[in-house]
Amino acid sequence: MELLLAICIWIVVIIISLWLAKELFIATFSCIKTEKINERLFAVKTNFMNFYIYKAEEATICFDAGYREKAIIKEMEKISIKPEEVTHVFLTHSDIDHVGGLNLFKNALIFLSVDEEQMITGKTRRFPFTKNKPIKEYQLLKDGEEVKLGETVVKGIATPGHTPGSMSYLVNEEILFTGDTVSIKGGKIGPFYRMINMDTKMQKESIKKIAEIKTIKMVCTAHSGITEEICYSEKK
C-alpha cells in the first residue's frame, strides 16, 4: 500500500512538473494581441500563437488556422471578420496550434507544402510518441510555386527545419509569413526553439535563404510578433 501511494505521488509530481514546464515555456513567447496591422493585414491571437489574415480585393486569406475554435471565433469578432468569409488558408506546417481551427473555415481552400504531407499521413512522427493529425482536404505546393488571387500573389517558399515541410509565404513580394521558422529576439530574426524543432541546423539554412530576399518589408511570425527589420542572428 505504501509503495502504491509513493508511486501515485510521484506520478502527480511528474504531471505537475510537466505542466509547469509547459507554462514557463509558453511564457517565453511574445505574441501580439488581436489587431489591425494595416488596411489589409490583421493579427489574430489564440492562446499562445498568432495567425494572420490578409484581406485582398478578391480573397480573404489566412496564414495558419489558429488553435481552439471558441477562442478563434471570439478573437475574430474583434476585427469584424467571420470564419466563413475566409476563402484560402495557407498552412506553414501541421502542428496542432497552427491547424486546430481549420474546421471553422468551411469555405476555404487549404494549402500545404508537398514536403509536409508526410507529417499528416503518419509517415513521419512529430515527436517519438506523437503524430500530427490528418487534414481532410488540401492542395499541395512546391517550393517557389505561386497562387494568384486576382492582383494578390502568394508564393510558397520551402523553409524546412521546424518540420520537414515547413513553408513560409511571401505576399506580393513584400510580406512574409513564417510560422515557426523564424523567432524575433532583440530586433533580429533567428531560429525557433531547438527543443521543438525537428532540425535546427536545416532551419538556420532556411532563415539564411529568406534573409536573402531583398523585397521583404515585413516578417510575421507565429510566436514572436512582427518585425520590419530583416536582420539575421544564429543565436537561440
What's the main sheet like? Answer: 7 strands, mixed
Structural class by sheet pairing and helices: alpha/beta
Number of beta strands = 15
CATH structural class: Alpha Beta
What helical percentage do the residues reach? 10-25%
Task: Work out the radius of gyration.
Answer: 18 Å
Strand order of the largest sheet: 1-2-3-4-5-6-7
Query: What is the name of the CATH superfamily?
Result: Ribonuclease Z/Hydroxyacylglutathione hydrolase-like
Shape: globular
The CATH topology turns out to be Metallo-beta-lactamase, Chain A
- Proper CATH architecture: 4-Layer Sandwich
The number of helical segments is 5
Poorly predicted regions are 16-25
What secondary-structure arrangement, pairings included, does this model have?
Layout: H1 2-26, E1 35-36, E2 41-46, E3 49-55, E4 60-63, H2 69-78, E5 88-90, H3 96-99, E6 109-113, H4 117-120, E7 139-141, E8 146-149, E9 152-158, E10 167-171, E11 175-179, E12 183-185, E13 188-190, H5 200-211, E14 218-221, E15 226-227
Parallel strand pairs: 4-5, 5-6, 6-7, 11-14
Antiparallel strand pairs: 1-2, 2-3, 3-4, 8-9, 9-10, 10-11, 12-13, 14-15
